Amino acid sequence: MSVLDSLKNAASKVYDNAKEKYQQEQERKQRKMALFSKFTFQDMKRLCKEYGKEPSPYIENPLSGKREKRDLNRHVYEGFVMNNVPSDFIKEYAQKHRINVPYYELTKVQVKERKPAMVQEPTQERQEAQRASKDEFTDYLDLIQTKFKPEPVRDEKELESQLSVWLKSRYEDAVRRQVQSPYGRIDIVLFGKYALELKIATDRSVLRDMVGQLRDYKKVYPNLATVILDIRSLERSVIEEYRKQYADDGVRSIIVEGMVRKGKGNRGNIVNVFR
């Protein structure tokens, strides 16, 4: 075997190991989220209290550096538990308080050991959990649609930064940027399962090129949406045309209005091309 072949094999093993770890991490988060679907808000708060750690009512604003008070809602608690409470403790808590453990919580070994007839029993619970996830995702998207008001941006990177900061002010550590997947980096992932891909609608080609990209990302994240910044350089009917194309592939879209600016710094020339 040549040196080049050896290097290729080594690189392939590194990639396979990284991919396996990534998939295991995603499965772990999915099992946690499935458990959350069975918890009431009071259960979530009591879980944190029994664990001895609770989310802070204050969060630092990354832009101003100041501490700001926030509402400790269910989403904040979910993000805190996702990143701070071990799965074993969550399962013990569920058993202690007689909370039905969903099918997702079963390990692969347990699934293999079950008889085929018994495997079919939890199907309804799994479907209910999936429906619950879709309802939660809809809530997040509605919140972004109605409350997120972006400042003028230079590019998609700035748009991603603004939305990420805005989401972190509400959901803290549940927000991750530039998440690696087998098909490339996804802009924002919320709670380890809700993916957002951001685009500035500068021309048709940008929206057209995103069709294939979204199809690939949806293989990894079934709960996928795109956030499109409408800067009025395209007719809204064109954006809606592609929005329908994405919807045909099961990808939802949010359209927010905004502006782009040219030049360096916050005082760059603001560009808003009206139809």
General description of the model:
- The chain is α/β, with parallel strands linked by helices and 275 residues long.
- The protein has 10 helices and 9 strands.
- It has one domain (3-271).
- Helix content is 53%, strand content 17%.
- Strands 3-4-5-6-7 form a 5-stranded mixed beta sheet, sandwiched between helices. The chain has a two-stranded antiparallel ribbon with strand order 1-2. Strands 8-9 form a two-stranded antiparallel sheet.
- Helix 9 runs parallel beside helix 10 (236-248).
- The relative contact order is 0.10.
- The model is unreliable at 102-122, 125-133 and 266-275 (pLDDT under 50).
Give the overall form: globular
Q: Total strand count, please?
A: 9
The parts where pLDDT drops under 50 for at least 5 residues are: 102-122, 125-133, 266-275
- Average pLDDT, all residues: 77
Please report the number of helical segments. Answer: 10
**Ends distance:** 62 Å
Radius of gyration from the CA trace?
21 Å
Q: Which percent bin holds the helix content?
A: 40-55%
Strand-pairing-aware structural class = alpha/beta
Query: In order across it, which strands form the biggest sheet?
Result: 3-4-5-6-7
Question: In the residues, how many domains can be counted?
Answer: 1
